[in-house]
């Protein structure tokens, strides 16, 4: 695991944009396409906005990047809570990424059907390869959740399926999510964590005893890939560094 600490959220986003841009360029020197699983929520918005502007707009060959999602709220695409909608607005509509390179988790069909369809897409892409995604971008909630892997829920213990859908009572909605097994087969996983509200949780996730029922972010340990945490000073305050 490699830890990257920035002064504030803006500096973190700038550092991570540079890291991602260079990483995509390096990988595309060795293979035809780059597969990128995006995170939802508010934390990555400034990162996506940076990637959609110069210098990264022209440094990255967006025609060769294939986009996926780590999880999705089962709400219509035009709902402001829809993760894909946010990514289109801030990043995808500005980069000229071909439509056939964008693989959303559908919310216009039943959640379980959407999860099954997405899993088939992933198997078509990744079966027979040593790794799945080239890059998975993740966030971490104040409660230690990542993707839609929430503390104390059965989804935390999923060992086989790559994509699952379930009803989250606390939010009164269905969620569709990648699971730990498919994420841990990625070549590179990057967490973003910002703000003092995450400091104690981050310390427990990184330095504490392993307890994924309490801190599901601990589940993410790439089997044959890199793990990076990009955090700001406020989030890192409790860490021993």
From TrEMBL:
One of its GO terms (molecular function) is 6-phosphogluconolactonase activity. The keyword Hydrolase applies. Residues 8-229 form the Glucosamine/galactosamine-6-phosphate isomerase domain. Keywords: Hydrolase. Pfam families: Glucosamine_iso. Its EC number is 3.1.1.31. NCBIfam families: pgl. Belongs to the glucosamine/galactosamine-6-phosphate isomerase family. 6-phosphogluconolactonase subfamily. This is 6-phosphogluconolactonase. It comes from Chitinophaga cymbidii. The gene is pgl.
